[in-house]
Design a protein that fits this description.
It comes from Acetoanaerobium sticklandii (strain ATCC 12662 / DSM 519 / JCM 1433 / CCUG 9281 / NCIMB 10654 / HF) (Clostridium sticklandii). By secondary structure, this protein is α+β, with helices and mostly antiparallel strands. It is built from eleven helices and 16 strands. A hairpin with a 6-residue loop joins strand 12 and strand 13. Helix 1 packs parallel to helix 3, helix 8 runs antiparallel to helix 9 and helix 10 packs across helix 11.
C-alpha cells in the first residue's frame, strides 16, 4: 500500500474504495473515503506511520459503509483525527440502521444487516460540510453537493484542482458490472452529473476506479452515466405500455438485462426502480392504480 501522487499535495491510495490523500506541510494528512473494514483502516494507519505521516482529518463523501468504515480503526491509531461529512450523511451515521431501513422499508432483519457492528458508528462527527469553501489547517478546499446516488453525497476539490467525487460517478467497469446502478434520487443524480461537468478541475478520483481521469476523460464518463440511467428510465417507461406491479417490473428488468444479484442486491435494485418510478410519476409520464390488493403502474 502506498500513496500515489496526482498533483501537488493531492494523491490517492488504491483499494476496493479509492482513498484520497492530501498532505499538509506539517506532515499531517486529510483522508477522503478511508474505505471498508477495520483491516483497511489498520493498513492505512501503518502506511502513514511508515511514511512519518499522521491522520489529522477524515471526510466521507457519503454514508455508505464501504466509504467510511475504516475510520473506526484510524481514529484509534491517531488520537485527535477529526471526522467530517455532509449534514444528510450525519443523520445516517447517527442512526446505524437507517440505511438498511429505507432499503428494506421496515426494521431490517439480521441477514440484511450482515456482520455490521454498532461500534463502527461509535465516533464523534467534528462538523458537517456544506457546499462552498471550507478550510482545514488554513488550506482552502471546495465542497460540492452531489446528491443522487445517496442522499448525502459531496465532492471535495483540493487546492491542486483534484476532485474527489466518491460514488457520484460510476467508472466504466462499474457500469458494466452493476448495469442497474444504486441510485436514491434519479433527478438529483442527473443534476449532479451536470454539476460535475461544470466544475473547474484538472483530475478526478472516482470512488471505485483503478484509474485517475483528466477533465476531458471525465466528460465522457459523465455522458456514459447519463446514457445508462436514461436508458433504464426509457426502458421502464416503454414497458409500462401495459400495467406492471413494481415487483413484476423489476423481474422483467432483471430478466431482460441479464442482471446478476443476491438477496441484498435485489433490495438495491428495488430501491433504484422506485427512484425511477418517482421520476416518471413526478414528470406526469406514468400513473398508478390499486386493484385487487396490488399496485399497478402504467403509461399515461
Amino acid at each position: 500500500m502506498e500513496i500515489t501522487k496526482i498533483n501537488g499535495k493531492s494523491g490517492f491510495v488504491k483499494g476496493g474504495t479509492t482513498t484520497g490523500i492530501y498532505t499538509f506541510k506539517d506532515k499531517s494528512v486529510l483522508i477522503i473515503d478511508p474505505g471498508l473494514s477495520s483491516a483497511r483502516g489498520n493498513r492505512l494507519s501503518q502506511m502513514l506511520e511508515d511514511s512519518s505521516l499522521r491522520a489529522r482529518y477524515c471526510i466521507t463523501t457519503h454514508e455508505h459503509l464501504d466509504h467510511f468504515e475504516a475510520y473506526s480503526s484510524i481514529k484509534n491509531h491517531f488520537t485527535g483525527c477529526s471526522f467530517f461529512c455532509s449534514e444528510n450523511t450525519k443523520r445516517f451515521l447517527q442512526s446505524p440502521k437507517f440505511f438498511t431501513t429505507y432499503i428494506y422499508g421496515a426494521n431490517p432483519h439480521k441477514k440484511l444487516l450482515g456482520n455490521t457492528k454498532a461500534s463502527i458508528f461509535d465516533f464523534d462527527i467534528e462538523d458537517t460540510i456544506k457546499q462552498g469553501q471550507f478550510k482545514l489547517s488554513d488550506i482552502k478546499f471546495q465542497a460540492y453537493e452531489l446528491n443522487g446516488h445517496s442522499n448525502g453525497d459531496i465532492g471535495i476539490l483540493s487546492p491542486d484542482k483534484v476532485l474527489y467525487v466518491g460514488d457520484a460517478l460510476f467508472d466504466y467497469h462499474i457500469m458494466k458490472k452493476y448495469d442497474f446502478p444504486f441510485i436514491f434520487d434519479v433527478e438529483k443524480y442527473l443534476k449532479s452529473l451536470e454539476l460535475i461537468d461544470e466544475i473547474d478541475f484538472d483530475y478526478c478520483v472516482i470512488g471505485h476506479s483503478k484509474s485517475i481521469y483528466n477533465k476531458d476523460e471525465i466528460t465522457d464518463i459523465v455522458s456514459k452515466n447519463k446514457d445508462n440511467v436514461n436508458r433504464y428510465v426509457n426502458e421502464i417507461y416503454n414497458l409500462l405500455e401495459q400495467p406492471y406491479t413494481r415487483e413484476e417490473l423489476l423481474s422483467k428488468i432483471i430478466s431482460d438485462n441479464d442482471l446478476k444479484l443476491d438477496y441484498k442486491e435485489y433490495h438495491y435494485y428495488y430501491s433504484t426502480l422506485g427512484s425511477m418510478l418517482t421520476l416518471l410519476i413526478d414528470n406526469d409520464q406514468i400513473q398508478y392504480e390499486v386493484e385487487n390488493g396490488l399496485v399497478y403502474y402504467y403509461k399515461l
